[in-house]
Amino acid sequence: MRGSSTRQAAKAAAVTERWDALPKLEVSTKRMLSARIYASEATVEAQHFDILRTKLLLEMRRNDWCRIAITSATPGCGKTTTACNLIAGLGRQPEIRGMLFDLDFRRPAVSKFFGVTPTASLEDVMNEKVAFEDQALRLHDNTLVSMTTRSVADPARVILKSQTADLLDRVQHDYQPDLMLFDMPPVLVSDETRGFLKLVDAVVIVAGAGSSSVAQIDEVEREVAQYTNVAGVVLNKCRFMEDNYGYSY
Predict the structure, then answer these.
(1) Which residues does residue 101 pair with via DSSP β-bridges, in sequence order?
(2) DSSP annotation of 194
(3) Would you list the DSSP string of 57-97?
(4) Where are the alpha helices (DSSP H) in the chain?
(5) Closest by alpha carbon to 97, among 175, 23, 27, 32?
(6) What percent of the chain has pLDDT over 90?
(7) Does residue 29 contact residue 45 with C-beta atoms inside 8 Å?
(8) pLDDT in tens, 45-61
(9) Which sign does the torsion angle of CA 19, 170, 93, 183 carry?
(10) How many CB atoms are located within 10 Å of the residue 231 CB?
(11) In what side-by-side order are the strands of the sheet with 229-236?
(12) Which among 12, 108, 167, 185 could disulfide-bond with 148, CB atoms 3.0 to 4.6 Å apart, if both were Cys?
């Protein structure tokens, strides 16, 4: 028993050391607010994302999920805003480790939201040109972001190759995250999202009020259900609501 406890302690220390070795991503509060990233602070604007974060974590624990993709039917629904707020909000939950990967290689936006351009792109990691630990950046002590800095001409060629599964398994093993978030392209305008879904445990679908039709959301739910679980649907961009009503999950 003592030997087992010692090994577990050594393993936990090694994981913490890997997290601590990652460079820190310095983002100003002003920059995040201008990009509608509210969840890094406990504010009125953040409360709807906090509710989403908590409900998602409860579902993950209940179902033993770790990998969550965030997508939408079409562009402009707010999936990246949702993903960035979720990872920012996890920074206020120090006992939980979270990661955000920008896999929208067609229109990468996470780096723009945070106002930071890393020296290497997630594409470089997936093409084995750069090691993950040399590309990822810590947003908080317990969260990291792996950003894409440029659009990719043939994203399916990169995302759907067999080495992608090995990369994710290795990162999950080395860093032991509680939550791995993937900002994916919209389902109805790309094929790489469908192919990638077999590598995740569940999907959050973001719908834009006034832009996403019920038929589109139904179609996305059916598509997703063929490959993995539907964690829920987030209704975004609701402009005419009571003050005490926010994101629907």
Answers:
(1) 146, 182
(2) H
(3) HHHHHHHT--EEEEEESSTTSSHHHHHHHHHHHHTT-TTS-
(4) 2-21, 29-34, 47-63, 79-90, 110-114, 122-126, 155-159, 163-175, 192-196, 214-225
(5) 175
(6) 72
(7) no
(8) 888 899 999 999 999 99
(9) positive
(10) 23
(11) 137-140, 143-146, 98-102, 179-183, 67-72, 202-208, 229-236
(12) 108
Can you give the pLDDT at residue 89?
94
pLDDT tens readout for residues 110-131: 999 999 989 999 999 999 999 9
User: How far, in Å, CA of 152 to CA of 131, rounded?
Assistant: 19
Token pair belonging to 4: 């087992």
Which are the contacts of 173, defined by CB distance < 8 A and separation ≥ 6? none
> What is the band of 84 on the pLDDT scale with cuts at 50, 70, 90?
very high
pTM above the 0.70 mark? yes
Q: Is 140 helix (H, G, I), strand (E, B) or coil?
A: strand
Say which residue the tokens 């399916």 belong to: 156
Is residue 240 predicted with pLDDT exceeding 60? no
> Residues with Cβ < 8 Å from 207, sequence gap 6 or more?
72, 73, 77, 216, 217, 233, 234, 235, 236
How many alpha carbons lie under 13 Å from residue 65 in its C-beta half-sphere? Answer: 23
Q: What is the pLDDT of residues 171-197, one digit of tens each?
A: 999 999 999 999 999 999 888 999 999
Domains of the chain: 2-236 (3.40.50.300)
Q: Is 178 left (phi over 0), alpha (psi -120 to 50) or beta?
A: alpha
